[in-house]
Structures are given as C-alpha cells and as structure tokens.
Specification:
Elements (H helix, E strand, L loop, with lengths): L4 E2 L20 H14 L4 E3 L9 E5 L1 H6 L2 H7 L8 E12 L3 E7 L7 E7 L1 E7 L5 E7 H14 L10 H6 L1 H8 L9 E2 L2
C-alpha cells in the first residue's frame, strides 16, 4: 500500500533505527509498502523511517537507473558486469568500504527538489537479510553502492542535508522551511506531522 513519505524536520528521520525482528508480523506488509511507495514516487530507494517506522529496513532499485542511463554514461555509474539490482535490505550492516571515492549528485524523497553532490566510496561490503530472510554478505559498487549508503544513512538518522556545509544549509533555509510545512509540489503523498 502506498504510504505518505515523511519529509524534512520529522523526528523519525533523525533517529537511529532498530533492527527488526524477523518474526515481527508487520514485516511482509512493510516490505510491500516500501516497494509500492517508492515506485509511486518514482524513487530508486526508500527506507522504513521515511514511511514513519523506526526499523533498519530499506529497498533499492538501481536496475531501473541502469536501464535509464545511456550506454555512454553507464561506465561512470556501473562496473562492467553490473546491471543494477532490485533488493530489500533487512537489518543491513556495513562491513567495509573502499578507499576509492567518487562524487555524484543525490536527491531524496524526504527532501523534495534538493540535489547535492556527495562523495561516497565506490565499493562497499554489506551484511543483510533479503525478503526470504536469507543472510547475505555481498559487495556492491558504483551507483548501487551509493543508493545503499544513502538509505543506510536514513536508518542512522542521517539526511542528505547532513552532507552539506553550514553556509549551504543557511542558503537553503527558506526551501527547507517550505518542505517542512508541506509547501512543495510532488507527485506523491507526504507527511508533515
């Protein structure tokens, strides 16, 4: 079911999430809600706190991004054999990051209309459970790794604006105030509770 996406200045977006018990009855519906809400908002990732739940769970769809990016640009965002993923990450833990860093622009459904260039590691290793509650330890690179790190930030209470300097935040004061009050044009439902 499509849920409203919590936007800037909601308490849930700045708190650290809890690991979700695998036997929690809401888990299957939470997974469906994350996919439905993300797809409705035409996003590429969404975390549980963005729909008001304090759990360490998120979904990633870098497959659509791979297909949308022109072939000439793919090598900037994806390794040779990488064609993106569509995956649920339950109780993920970051294990390793590469020293190779790269910059790219990021946006966030909880901060509509804000785009920021962020430097992130090219390669990560992560431990997580998938939708079938199977444990995985896997490496991801490029844009997929960036999306995972962005959503992992959400589960730790870190927002895109935390990657911005003080002067940039001051410059964006009125835009952030508009987002906080729900005065933004988006094609998806938002929550400003």
């Amino acid at each position: 079911m499509i849920q409203p996406i919590y936007v800037y200045d909601q308490q849930i977006l700045v708190q650290k999430c809890l690991d979700i018990p695998h036997d929690l009855p809401i888990l299957p519906n939470l997974i469906l809600d994350l996919w439905d809400t993300m797809r409705n908002a035409q996003g590429c990732g969404l975390s549980a706190p963005q729909i008001g739940l304090p759990y360490n769970v998120f979904v990633i769809d870098s497959q659509n991004a791979f297909q949308a990016i022109g072939k000439g640009f793919r090598k900037r965002y994806f390794d040779t054999e990488d064609k993106g993923i569509q995956e649920i990450f339950i109780n993920p833990q970051l294990l390793e990051v590469s020293s190779k860093m790269w910059k790219a622009e990021e946006g966030c459904l909880s901060l509509p209309s804000l785009i920021k260039e962020v430097s992130r590691p090219w390669l990560i290793k992560i431990s997580y459970y998938n939708e079938q509650l199977e444990h995985h330890v896997q490496e991801f690179s490029g844009l997929t790794a960036r999306m995972i790190l962005h959503e992992l930030d959400h589960t730790k209470g870190i927002l895109l604006i935390n990657h911005m300097g003080v002067f940039t935040k001051k410059y964006l004061y009125f835009k952030l105030k508009s987002i906080k009050k729900g005065r933004v044009k988006v094609s998806y439902p938002i929550s400003t509770r």
